[in-house]
Write a structure and sequence with these properties.
This protein has 16 helices and 10 strands. The longest helix is centred in the first third of the chain and has 24 residues. With about 375 residues, the chain is an alpha+beta fold. Helix 5 packs across helix 12 and helix 7 packs across helix 12. A 7-stranded antiparallel sheet has the order 4-3-2-1-7-6-5. About 55% of the residues lie in helices and about 15% in strands. The chain folds into 2 domains: about 100 residues, Pleckstrin-homology domain (PH domain)/Phosphotyrosine-binding domain (PTB) (PH-domain like), CATH 2.30.29.30; about 250 residues, no CATH class.
Length: about 375
């Protein structure tokens, strides 16, 4: 067994970005995920570069295509155990040369970008905000599509027409109330038990089936979706990804350099989508979600109720930690946010009794349980 232990992140249909370690043992990658050990054949594992400027190393085991792990330590390619197995493989030799040349190759940059880079050094935050604000909406849409493409290998998108028809009935009041948005929203349902939803730049929203099945009524689902719509409308999703990938991506989007967006994102979509927003962004999205729900004629207390119910189920041990983890980890400061949402609803002056449910969620739940 190789004496070197490498830190990695693991993704599959149930795990999003969990920390783990990997060592090389003979012809196997040995992945240790909190005591759960998996063995993957080195010979049948595809290795590729990805992420911003190809700074991440991705491993795709063929025997378990649902399992992907990556590391920012490119030195794994120099591991003696790995070289002993793959050292004569042309693809491996080419990959190592590519990494080596990328470290030595000088960066070429236009005079205008050089000036911008110099300004960035002295006023990074004000300039970054100005650049992000100036990015064309069309470029933001392209970015969202690139991230979605990166995510596609691990999402199980539901295409059942009956399910989608019911889902449209569920969210239609939100879409009408949000019709003044500059974004043409696209919604996808993923067969995933996590009670969560997340938004990508440009108006792509992925809703997990677990969100629908865990919710008590239609207003709870719509509350979470209104929150994600608000992240897009306020360009939080764009901000989030630029902050993760770097200001270089924002400059590309601003200047219309959209040719290699997919390459820039690489296989980092799930990592980028799983990052939580700042407290300021979350509060703004909460406030905007409440306002959107009121305009749509949907009970805004449903948003509060879903959040509160998930926390209570977790605290009572009824909901497993891994089931609640994704939503709660990407929506932190639970109690403070519940208080904030309650205050925002109280400001508008609406009561739970003021509303009737606009859609019977049991219809959608029934079809989901029957078809999945």
């Amino acid at each position: 067994m190789s004496s070197e232990k490498y830190f990695i992140k693991v993704f599959n249909s149930h795990i999003r970005g969990a920390s783990a370690t990997v060592v090389i043992d003979g012809r196997y990658f040995v992945v240790d995920l909190n005591g759960r050990v998996e063995y993957f054949s080195i010979d049948s594992t595809r290795i590729s570069l990805g992420g911003a400027a190809n700074r991440l190393l991705y491993f795709h085991p063929e025997e378990n295509r649902d399992f992907v792990f990556y590391s920012s330590n490119l030195g794994i390619l120099n591991d003696s155990g790995l070289i002993a197995v793959l050292g004569r493989e042309k693809s491996f030799i080419k990959l190592r040369r590519r990494v080596k040349s990328s470290k030595l190759r000088p960066y070429t940059i236009s005079l205008s970008l050089l000036i911008l880079a110099i300004v960035v050094i002295f006023s990074i935050l004000p300039l970054k905000r100005l650049i992000i604000k100036s990015i064309p909406f069309s470029a933001e849409v392209k970015l969202g599509e690139a991230v979605f493409q990166s995510l596609s290998f691990e999402l199980s998108i539901i295409e059942d027409s009956d399910i989608l028809k019911e889902f449209e009935l569920l969210i239609s009041p939100l879409l009408v109330a949000n019709s003044n948005s500059v974004y043409d929203f696209k919604f996808y349902i993923s067969d995933d038990s996590d009670p969560n939803a997340f938004a990508l730049p440009g108006g792509i929203v992925i809703v997990n089936s677990g969100l629908i099945l865990h919710a008590g009524d239609s207003s709870e689902v719509c509350g979470v979706i209104a929150h994600e719509i608000s992240h897009v409308n306020a360009r939080h999703s764009l901000n989030q990804i630029v902050n993760q990938v770097g200001i270089g991506l924002a400059l590309k989007l601003l200047l219309g350099d959209l040719g290699d967006l997919t390459e820039s994102i690489g296989h980092s979509g799930s990592f980028l989508a799983s990052r939580h927003f700042s407290r300021r962004n979350e509060r703004e999205a909460d406030r905007l979600a409440v306002e959107l729900m009121v305009r749509a004629g949907i009970n805004p207390w449903g948003f509060y109720n879903f959040f509160e119910g998930l926390v209570e189920l977790l605290n009572d041990g009824i909901l497993a930690v891994d089931e609640a983890f994704t939503f709660l980890s990407t929506h932190p400061n639970h109690r403070q946010r519940l208080e904030y949402i309650s205050r925002e609803i109280d400001k508008i002056g609406v009561e739970d009794s003021d509303y009737q449910e606009h859609y019977d969620l049991d219809n959608l739940k029934y079809i989901l349980k029957k078809r999945l």
